[in-house]
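INFO worker-7 received task bundle
INFO bundle size: 2
INFO processing item 0
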Amino acid sequence: MPKKAVVFMRYGPYRSLNLTVEHRTFRLQGMLNVLQRAGHRVILQKIKDWDALELIVNGEVVFQCKISSLEFGGDGKLDPLCEQAKLAVLHAY
């Protein structure tokens, strides 16, 4: 895969601190930072799937996880899911 890929980050609503269910990007910041630092262009897309995060490269889902599994805030360097996602994008076809 080229080092500079277009990555569609599809994310669903989730509950934060037992408040209302909404589409939020707070937990996505680390993943966004890691992918953008690696040279990828990230496009955010809202979906209806509850607590879902998908990374799509060339029409193929290359990584999936629950949004609630990501670390809140930060730059993503210490979040193992961000590293897994970066490698999945790198090895996408």
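INFO item 0 finished
INFO processing item 1
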Amino acid sequence: MGTDLTFSSRRSPVVCLHGCVASSQQIASLVGLDILKRGGNAADAAVAIAAALAVTEPGSTGPGGDAFCLFYNGKTGEIGGINGSGRSPQAQTLDFMEGRGYTAEAPPSVFDALNVTVPGAPACWCDTVQMFGSHRLSLHEVLSGAVKLAEEGFPVAEVTAHHWEKSVSALRDDGKELSGDLLIDGHAPKCGQIFRNTSLAHVLKALGEHGKPAFYQGRVAQAIVDAVDQNGGVMTLDDLSRHDSEVITPISTDYKGVRLWELPPNCQGLAALMLLNILEHFPQLKAIGHNSADYIHVLVEAVRLALTDAQRYVSDPEHVTVPLETLMSKSYSHQQAQHISMERVMERMEPGQMTGSDTVYFCVIDGHGNACSFVNSIYANFGTGLVPEDCGFPLQNRGAGFSLVLLNMLEFEMNPQRALDAPRVYVQYDHKVDQWKVNLEEGVDQEVAEELERRGHKVNWPVRGHKRSQFGRGQIITVGDWWNQSGTHAGPPSRVLWAGSDPRADGCALGY
């Protein structure tokens, strides 16, 4: 099978009336759709998808990581949120880390057990169903689709198989071996090969039957502590049993009549809101053309400003005061926008340590107008690579990318699938060369790349094949053709659901 991962196919947006799901794995999307058809709502389906992705894409997500939920109530119009991120072990103080010889400039390696924080995803799943679910289906029923997948097995998808194999090699290069629970005869599964994970099936089944105590107390909790302890970490049973999700009030900003909602810090969603506030001061974006040199230049500079602030200020609000009101104010974004010159890049701005991550995003809208936006992450691919005994999931390394397809729909009137298909830009700070790098996906014109270099950008073009994964894997569901600003469609607003799924992953959008 080839490794080029060429984008030769074309997909129309999914259009439907009653309910829709979009995720990075086709099988997981089916699991979520089944929950909707059985009477569950968007929150129920989102948790079902999260668990199914833990089975089908264990390198990106799972109960060993964190989760974040936004839920829109179609009846009341209210938006609620759950921050399902875990904390570092209590014993892992700054003095402890410095005593081990680690500093901000020389942190532990990405696979080190000291990067394991308490997994928040299982508690978030339980709380999402409890707080926002339909209550027509039990947690056991919501998780049953994932349990069945893990017990009976599923054929591994192409993109997933590639990154699975790559991660196994990376771990071995670091002197570590992925657990046999996540291998077949010592190897990563190939595309189309049936993979079963009975250990994970047992964990999910217990979670469905007994709730949070089945994960944060007892056998699974002890297995997590043992895995961390045996590899130099300091997590305890008390660290796990003390964990709980945080119910939060989402934050938002208005961009040209559309309100974007995000979770507040310690989450990174603030960066997206600051970015939109800056871009609002460039009303000519549509006129200068999609993926033109001017458009990408403005976008990159705005991303640099937003990410620099995010890295400087986003932290645990229990320990640091985050100046949210100032950072999100329109007056501050106006000041920031003034720093952008159309001719040259801004002077050097150095953010904190920034690395890539493996995260899944998925979304659901049900027939009652409820919507659930969900993120589940173990940070780097397969996290630390540490797998608690007989549990079938890796532990995250969140203790150790930016893509905004919304602009494609708002500014350039693209439908969800076309917005996801369009070539992307990824801005990152490269500490090895001490400068910002602008990665341009194949499909962006060579002349654009050359013009950006003339303006002083460090450009990496074209990014092809499986390296496209750095551009993220978006999923979109919209209600009605709201991105069409021309008013060409007569009559009242439609209740048609339009959806798209990122071609850079193995998934799809499904509706009925």
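INFO item 1 finished
INFO post-check item 1: The two ends are 33 Å apart (CA to CA).
INFO post-check item 1: The longest helix spans residues 293-313.
INFO worker-7 idle
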